[in-house]
Amino acid sequence: MATGQAESRAELARLSGLAPSSVSLRVEQLIEAGLFAEEGAGASRGGRRPRRLRLARQAGAFLVADLGAHHARLSVVDLAGAPLALDELACDIAVGPEETLTAVIASLRSLAHAHGLRDVPVRGVGIGLPGPVDPATGQVVSPSRMPGWNDFPVRDFVADHAGVPALIENDANLMAVGEHRHSWPALDNLMVVKLGRGIGCGVIVDGRLHRGRGAAGDISHVRILSEATVDCSCGHPDCLEAHASGAALAAALGAHGIEVERPAQIVDLVTDGVPQATSAVRTAGRLIGDVLTGLVNFFNPDALVIGGSLSEAETLVSTIRGVIYERCLPLATRNLEIATSRAGRDACILGAGHLLLDRSDAWIDHILDR
């Protein structure tokens, strides 16, 4: 219903492969629960015109947050995954999970109330985190930049405090889903790289998010070759993130007396032609390109999408693109499209909305069991 692929019981039965009687029974339950509504008659296919179904306008909404190191992007999205309200929250993820998540949940509810959605029931909460997430447990596992979060039961904590099913996912994975569903739905295989304070990558295989056991796509701790050794926050030397992330670039510029607090400021410095910033970004682009070269050869995706705040630095993107086209096999790049994000800052929000919709069985059963 939410995706627009069906608007009647017969079409739902055809798409699901279930018996029409089973679909009709389920639809009646959803109508009684206030999730579906009937309106008018649909087009006839030779018999009686079917009654059209739609999501009830007051059926509910999802609360979604994309957490970074020092801020969170907040949104209320409808049951089709489209944002109804957006906001930003200043927060420090280093204060720990309980304080951060409590503040985020409270701010999400305030956002809904402020936009006249107080009476719309919350059906699920989605949280994107800048660290590895175990998909089986909803726990963060050995994050390098999230002190106090290791093995914390994020999914259980959010579900208990919000009173609804919770989705916990790595932010790069959410970006990959958001980009794919919003901007590249016709493509089956994508790599979506998030370049901000850290480095992440989400992978779409055969049209679906590939998580592995939770670490799929984590390119941030791939070891690179460098003249100077730099220890990474994970405890190992010369990880890609230690040399090419927004945090690493800020540290490099700080050594030149140029203070940077946010990755967006690095983009501004490059745009203004500050030579130290341009040089640092080009070096980072070559290192990122070297890592992505092996992955493009290995995975052979249809498109490589570069997002995150640093993706607005054209020098960085062009350097990455140049390395990949120079170093990859011709067959790997012949039809490869390398592009910057089309979904922009809301890619993670869109991805969370779609994944919550994909898990509709969880929150629908939660409603019907009440």
Automatic annotation (TrEMBL):
Entries under SUPFAM superfamilies matching the protein: Actin-like ATPase domain (SSF53067), Winged helix' DNA-binding domain (SSF46785)
What Pfam families does its record include? ROK (PF00480)
Q: Fetch the Gene3D superfamilies from UniProt.
A: 3.30.420.40, Winged helix-like DNA-binding domain superfamily/Winged helix DNA-binding domain
Provide the family line. Belongs to the ROK (NagC/XylR) family.
**Which protein is depicted?**
ROK family transcriptional regulator
